[in-house]
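notes to self, project folder thing:

trying the whole complex as one job this time. last attempt i did each chain seperately and stitching them together was a nightmare. two parts in total, labels are on each line so i dont mix them up again. if this works i'll redo the older ones the same way
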Amino acid sequence: MKNENYPILFDPIRVGHLTLPNRVIMGSMHTGLEESKGGMHALAQFYAERAAGGAALIVTGGIAPNREGMLGPGGARMQRKKHAHEHRLITEAVHGEGGRICMQILHGGRYSYHPFNVAPAAKKAPINRFKPRKLSNRGVLRTIRAFVRSAKLAQLAGYDGVEVMGSEGYLINQFLVEATNNRSDQWGGPYENRMRFPIEIVRQIREACGADFVIMYRLSMLDLIPNGSSWEEVILLAKAIESAGANVINTGIGWHEARVPTIATLVPRGHFSFVTEKLKGSVDIPLVATNRFNNPETCEKALRDGVADLISMARPFLADPEIVKKSETNRSHEINTCIGCNQACLDHIFKRKVATCLVNPRASHEATWPLLARAVNPRRVAVVGSGPAGLSAAIETARLGHRVELFEESDAIGGQFNLAKRIPGKEEFHETLRYFQSMLVKLQVKVHLNHHITADDLSIRFDSVILATGIRPRSWSTPGIEGQGVLVGYTAVLKNEITIGSRVAIIGAGGIGFDVADFLTHDGDASFSNAWGIDQGLTSRGGLLQPGTRTSKREVHLFQRSSGKVGARLGKTTGWIHRKTLKERGVQTHSDVKYQKWADGWLYFTEGDLPQKIQIDHGGTK
Amino acid sequence: MEERNELVEALNGKDVEVHTIGGALNSRGLDAQRAIREGLEAAYRLAPWKVNQEC
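result (full assembly):
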């Protein structure tokens, strides 16, 4: 019977020898558990929970075919039989839940962060300090054999197939593009030679693993680097990969070194599906659309519009392992939606920490906080404050079986979320609030708004109290500024409670300072593609155009007392986006600042040892 | 920013178990990630629990 809400999303599809019950693939995500002690057990639990949650097909994080291809020292490999035996834990756990799983084979090439890295040419990546060694002809052949051996071992481990990682700027991608492949042998020069490497990998894996083994190929359809692949080359490669034996083609968007956001919150939902759509009809095997799909509605629309045959979501499965099951059973309002922040997933990976999720800290730690846990002796629990901490405490405490009441002094739940959702590009926080609201109702948490509760009341009526009363902004002042009507708090600014002038000083350049600067200067931005120079017509190599100009009517200054780069503490994977955006809008940053006074409309300060003054209409507090 | 935690002192000595989390516990470097994680941790810290396989 067709699903009433999402008929195409839950329409089964054949991929190779598998019949998938729906169109949702859990895309590859490195979690860091791959290299952790006891990580295989944790990974098995992690993937099993997502298989039980309805993912039609799971793709593991990237596993290197050999030592040279490891992403970092000690990186996960599928190179020997012992590796295959270790992975059995994962495949058995997933199959035990009725799921299906492919192992991604990923060779980092010049992105591999260690001194043994190799590439088609000895050209260092801009995001790596290790210069790669150029592969010899024998080295190329040996690497192809390593991919094939890895696939055979994955089959031995019980995987239903492999995904060959051919995008995001990793080794295979490096062979395809002249910018990283200046060889003159059979692996370089004309495109027919440059694409020989992936074709041989896919052809030989098919030959070695037989027909009943899925080969998914992740094809870089939009490199977003100068002199990247042309669209004609993308089509040529897709056809050749299909002929070589692939069962399904997944979409890759942007090399890691690209200076265009591809998965951050500010990327509109499903934005890059136009790329996959353009390839439709060029090949007969299913195509997978990806990047910034995070809810069933966007997936269903893309499928209905004929953009692709399947949708891949990765981070949304961190945020909610049951995203598919909830969509299927008319509970999409209970989905804990991925907000695309990267703060606890990708940023953790770059810090060599285990990836988890900002909105779901249980991700990757399923054994520590089991979903099926229940309190032995249910208690009466009060949670005071309904910001992010209070909301999380309230629903998790209620989930454990306690009787929970939530007290909030204002007229709405959400605390700082209510400010964050007003920042351009952070609208996904609306979804987080919707999730918490739904769960409060479902878990029968009694919510008291506009309610100030006293310590006496708490101690009389409850066994336990969780205090999540939050923060108050620190006051800031400088001689002469008090009583002048120019000093305002950031909450009033974000709530549009006051009219802000055209010259603004923002005191404090942390995350909130950047958000306020973004809020005050976003008026002149063009569309996402235009602002970031994405060629939606796909006529230029790499899909890049000259970005549109960004302007702001306001003159905004961002101040920090400490020395060093302003915004240096922002997240590794998104901080550069915020810094670049504000710079292009003309926001001026000041570090190593000491404030002196405000007089006659001027803020006097020193920057380092240099005395400065700027004319301002408003200054914001931290 | 600074902690808003007047209730902590007011509840001191009362016959009730108290857990303080998020910005009320520590305003330095506060972000939603830490806040939500501390909410989860507090819930599991409250009382003995067991995994109920019948759920």
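what i see at first glance: The interface with chain A takes residues 1-8, 10-11, 14-24, 27, 30-33, 35-40, 42-44, 46-53, 55 of chain B (CB under 8 Å).
need to look closer tmrw
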